[in-house]
Structure formats: C-alpha cells, structure tokens
C-alpha cells in the first residue's frame, strides 16, 4: 500500500528518507512538478523509476541535491558560470548539465558522461534529500506520455494506491507547475535545452550569451541526435489532438467557435471565457499573469484528457519569462501544430 504523507507532519521527512535509502520509490513535491524519486546512486532503485513510469531507457534523469555545494560531489570540471547560476537561481527551478563523476551510475544518466543536477526549493523535499544522504533521481511523476503531475492527487490517479510507489509526499499544488529550465554547460557556450520557471532573459543576465537548442522551438525527427535526449519524445500530451490557435482573442474565437462540436474543447485564458459562452471551455490561468498559466496548465490538460474529447483548441501566451515554458509545453502537446487565426478569416 502506498503511504500518503503530508509535508506538515514532522515525521514525513524521516519516513520518506528511510524509504529512499531502502531503494524504494517515493513521489516528491517540488516547486516545478511532482517527481518520482529514488536513490540516484543505486542502479536498482533507478531501474524501478524507468519500469514504473514506462520511461524509455535512453531518457536520462535529473539528480536532486539539498544544497548547491553538493554539485561538486557529482560533477567535475565545473565552470564559474555554474556557480553564478547556482547563486542566482538555487534553490529553484533550474537544472544544469555538467560532466558527471564516476560515482553517478550510468543508468541515471542513460549512459551519458554528463549529468543533470538541480537543487529544488520545496523545504520538505530538500530535508528528505538531506536525511537520505544521497542525491535523489527524479523525473516528473506522471506515467510516461501523460501530462506532468502538479498535485499529489495526479500521482495517485496515475499509479493508484496499490501500485509501485512506497509513498507520496503531499505539499499541495506546485507553485511553478512546469518542469525546470535546463541549461547545458558542457560546450563553449551555455545552451538552453528546455525552458522552465527561470526565463531566458534571466539566464542571459547572468550568463551573457545563451544559445537556444533547436529542440526548444521545433519537432525533432526520431533519429535526430539530441542534446537533451528526452526532448525527442512526444510529451505533455492528452489523448486529443491539440491545435494551438494564435492571434488576438477575438480573432481566435472567430476561428474556433464554428469548429466546436461535442468532441472538442477550448483551452483558453480566463479573460477569454466571455467569448466562448455555451461552449466546452476550460480556462487554465490569466493571460495577464503568466505564472497562473504555468501553475494551471498540466491540471487543465489532465482534465481534458478524456475519451470523448478528440480535439482541443488551445490559446497560448507569447511573452518571455515563464510564458516561454508554457508556450513550449503547449506546442509540444500540439506536436507543433499551430493555426494563425487572422490568416484564415
Ligand atoms: P524529466 O525528469 O521528465 O523532466 O526529464 C529530464 C530531462 O532532463 C531529460 O528528458 C533530458 O531532456 C534532460 N537531461 C537529463 N540529463 C541530461 C544530460 N546528461 N544531458 C542532457 N539532458 C539531460
Ligand atoms: Mg517528464
């Protein structure tokens, strides 16, 4: 039976840490999404993550540490820029890719000589990592292919209470709601592999230059050589076809409304709800406050992940900061299928 533990219970961190040390799987809250955690130095424990999620073996995991200085234990040849980033953004929603030390099992890194490391913000999770005395490898806790988990209930929905998880630690809904920003520091120039809670402008302020990987902006072919291996997989997607409709609110509504039927839904901004009276509509946040969009996106995609919905018309923010990450996840859910509403009228 999966134990349900609350972050507010003083015994939770000790119980969860003991389970991790025993090689068990524990779902952990972070400010980005809920992760499926295991001892990142124990290949048998790490193998359980891949089996439980149905995750392809060539998709590496992120190691979570309790303090920025622990970076040294798992990475070598750490450039000054890594410490600059750590100082500005850790603990927080930023992951760095660096050369791995031999202590990191190659099952954690999916055979790579580099490792992705992050120091998350959520206090109970940092305390669990500290008490466990090992870095915790954790991908998002969703079953592979499903939208990410941003609440303990999402995790329970995916695995049930008799499944492979020893425990789920509940700290309420995730504040950021999309996965961490990933920056590779392996090459000459820092490279953005995945947008997240830390925006590209914030990174540029610290790093100066930042290259943006092609996987962020376009669909990769199956045989593409990718720097962030997970990025070639279809992610974040409900079973329906998602179509991103671009353009001003009224123009988009003119395109979407006549196309709606009982098997389609609109995923829009709260400000746009009056444009869709009588339609199957779900608002995931406010356009004027992108943080609400990132916090609400995956819960909304999960709500629309139903057999009777075959098409989702989605409205997508265009700005910088976390809006960049929301845009990336929605475009990926859509397989980069977009319509410019103004060109169709
Ligand atoms: P998830 O935990 O599901 O958010 O996925 C973690 C992602 O981090 C992977 O899918 C990769 O895109 C990225 N990642 C992890 N380790 C590495 C690495 N060594 N090099 C490049 N990307 C990595
Ligand atoms: Mg994931």
Summarize the helices and strands and which ones pair or pack.
Blueprint: E1 3-6, H1 12-21, E2 26-28, E3 35-39, H2 43-53, E4 62-64, H3 71-74, H4 80-89, E5 94-99, E6 114-118, H5 123-132, E7 136-137, H6 152-159, E8 167-170, E9 181-184, E10 191-194, H7 200-207, E11 211-212, H8 214-217, E12 241-246, H9 249-256, E13 264-269, E14 281-285, H10 290-303, E15 311-314, H11 322-333, E16 338-340
Q: How would you describe this structure to a colleague?
A:
There is one protein chain. The protein has 345 residues and is α/β, with parallel strands linked by helices. Helices cover 29% and strands 19% of the residues. The chain is built from 11 helices and 16 strands. Strands 1-8-2-3-7-4-6-5-9-10-11 form an 11-stranded mixed β-sheet, with helices on both faces. It has a 5-stranded parallel β-sheet with strand order 14-13-15-12-16, with helices on both faces. Strand 9 (181-184) and strand 10 (191-194) form a beta hairpin. It is globular. The mean pLDDT is 94.
Features:
345 residues, alpha/beta, five-stranded parallel β-sheet, binds adenosine monophosphate, binds magnesium ion
